[in-house]
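Q: What would this complex look like in 3D?
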Amino acid sequence: MNYSFLMIVSLALGLATGFIMHRSDFCMAGMFRDFFLFREKFMLRMLALAAVASMALFEAAREAGLLPYPFPLFASPSLANLVGGAFFGVGMVLAGGCVAGTLYKMGSGSLLSAIAFVGLVTGSALYAEIHPWWEGFVRATTFFTGKVTIPQMIGIGPAPVAMTVVAGGVLLFRRWGRGGKMERRSRAEGYLQPWKAALLLALIGLLSVLITGMPLGITTAYAKMGACLENALFPAHLAGLAYFQTIPLDYTSPLGNTRLVGGPGCRFDAVAAVQFPLVFGIVAGGTLSSLLLGEFRVYFRIPTRQCLSALAGGTIMGMAARMAPACNVWHLLGGLPILAGQSVLFLAGLFAGAWLGGRILVKWVARY
Amino acid sequence: MTAMGDDNPREIELDLRGQICPSTLLRALKEMNCRRQELKDGRVKLVIKTNNRDSTTTIPDTAVNMGYEASVAKEGDYYRIVVEGAGDGAGRGA
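A: Here is my prediction, written as structure tokens for the whole assembly.
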């Protein structure tokens, strides 16, 4: 099986994502956190734009017969999506960035994000310890069994729902645009207006779906890293963990007709081929952007409290990404645009978690 | 109120480079609130060093909303944000 094409594509998409996110400060953790801490809605508008643009692009591709619908790995909703989303929200705020934000910030020299990255890998591996129990919870709380998206649940085609949401979105964005709410003046060098970033990220998501058959996702790669680390340290224990034996992905990609098979275990498979280059690309994109601006620099004088917060936040987020399952990028720019029930619940949980994370941050971490 | 300030207000430097988001804004807010009178009188000015690109927008916007003046300059690999009292009490952007 030849994955080299997929790997090159994923690397390129990752590079572009990291670069764009760094230039536009497209920090999704910040979007939710600042909504609660400072009543700042600007970046949430940008996230809405990215989601609605993705919806329009995915729906057009689906109509053209280029898209698997729904995407692989999405399942029927359960309470696990809500609870996982809430833990994820707490984790990303304490870590100072989501799973993608942590990568591009680490790439631009952030020590705290590097610590959060260690936490992400640790948390993803820790999840394997509770996997059998958590699977039971997922099974017990799944509803609309056999149905993945909201249109499927209410028994209508995806087209009318998508067209209605997109039309409403266009009207809203135009109104905000006229009111000057879609742009902001930045004094940062090389700043990319976030509305442009939102549209570019939607385009990157479309390319990912067309080529790999899946929206952007990176968190199974974290579990894989954790598994490999554990394999080196405690191989006997790892062999007994059911989670690392699972193969959730088994699917044929739309372009190239490649059969993609993979899971969180420590081996080279389709998940590794798609996600490792993406992870590396996002880090490298952040590095490239900051180097070109002359802003790459590692600062070591950071309060211990903040380092602990990044480690704890990363660990919680890593674990939550397996519980949810999947991360904010997967759900908000992949699942939400096709109105996957899982992603809607994840978003609801994320709001609650970000609120709580903000409270903890102000009270314990950035206490002035 | 004494309108006049020193020609050279005392600088309060906050070096927040490398710190977790949004501690730069939180710390700046704290200082802007606690030193309101000194800032307005022109006795002090805040000098914030940050490498957080987002802070170059959020801090000046917040400062201007609170009636201060703010300016941003890039100094090598970080940004230097200066917040001081606007002479006439009306905020002006950088």
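A: To summarize the key features: The longest strand of chain B covers residues 68-75. The beta strands of chain B are 10-15, 44-50, 68-75, 78-85.
Q: Very helpful, thank you.
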